[in-house]
Write a structure and sequence with these properties.
The protein is an alpha/beta fold and about 260 residues long. The protein has a single domain, classed as Peptidase S8/S53 domain (Rossmann fold, 3-Layer(aba) Sandwich). About 30% of the residues lie in helices and about 20% in strands. The strands form three sheets. The protein has a nine-stranded mixed β-sheet, sandwiched between helices. A two-stranded antiparallel ribbon has the order 5-13. Strands 10-11 form a two-stranded antiparallel sheet. Helix 1 runs parallel beside helix 4 and helix 2 packs parallel to helix 3.
């Protein structure tokens, strides 16, 4: 029987199980992409492989369950697919952490997504989600039952974090340009809040202390933070306004209604 405190679910683009840095990793999973075989968790994008590679560097004894939600074009046009994935975890997987290096900037019905998250956290699952790279607040990272992670402007090491006194953005971590596992090529340098989110998941997985609620996990992260800073929401709100204006001018505002990796 798998120890649930060592099990993490990653909802992403799949994983390259043949990657040289992931030899020995324990991975199961399934695909939610139309046209895929149910057990096809191959990664055609690279993003999921990068996320799992980061977490695995912290916790080699972890067991991963991958839910493949994104194809090679980063397509997951229906937010209901994310809700379905979360409900599947609640009903079928006994895990410790769910890593969501993804999000939606505009959610027409936040309630259904919030309830799906709440069902998981009520089971004692710690959910960690990334905010949008351009600065707009995104979901589910904004919810009060989620650890919302954004990229820090500071020069943080991979295992360093900053704690934010905020209701929405809770942790700043290293999302700066870094070498990650990928697919064709095997490694590349990239950046984004997705990778900051994975570092936070890795820190919690590696900790000898285990937690049964998001509040307990936040307290632990606050205590080990390099610094505690004031609310950064105002800066994000200002960036959000600028982004909305730009997207409106380009007539691309519909793009951020879909679920996407950051």
């Amino acid at each position: 029987m798998t120890n649930r405190k060592k099990k993490i679910v990653v909802i992403d683009s799949g994983v390259n199980i043949e990657h040289p840095s992931l030899k020995g990793v324990r991975i199961q999973g399934h695909s939610m992409i139309k046209g895929d075989a149910l057990d096809d968790i191959s990664d055609n994008l690279g993003h999921g492989t990068a996320i799992i590679g980061i977490i695995y560097n912290y916790a080699q004894d972890a067991t991963f369950y991958v839910i493949k939600l994104f194809d090679r074009d980063n397509n997951c046009s229906d937010p209901c697919n994310l809700i379905s994935a979360l409900n599947f975890i609640t009903d079928n997987i006994d895990c410790y952490i769910v890593n969501l290096s993804l999000g939606i900037s505009i959610v027409e019905d936040k309630r259904e997504l919030y309830i799906a998250c709440k069902r998981l956290t009520e089971k004692g699952v710690i959910m960690i989600s990334a905010h949008d790279n351009l600065g707009s607040l995104s979901y589910p990272a904004c919810f009060d039952n989620i650890i919302g992670v954004a990229d820090s402007d500071s020069r943080l090491k991979n295992n360093e974090i900053e704690y934010v006194n905020s209701d929405t953005i809770n942790i700043l971590a290293n999302g700066s340009n870094q070498r990650v596992c990928w697919v064709e090529p095997d490694y590349l340098f990239t950046e984004g809040s997705s990778f900051a989110c994975a570092h936070v998941s890795g820190i919690l997985m590696a900790s000898e202390q285990k937690f049964s609620s998001v509040d307990q996990a936040k307290l632990f992260l606050r205590r080990r933070a390099k610094r505690v800073i004031d609310d950064v929401n105002k800066n994000y709100e200002q960036k959000n306004i600028c982004q909305m204006i730009l997207l409106e001018e380009l007539q691309f505002s519909h793009l951020i209604k879909k679920c996407t990796v950051w």
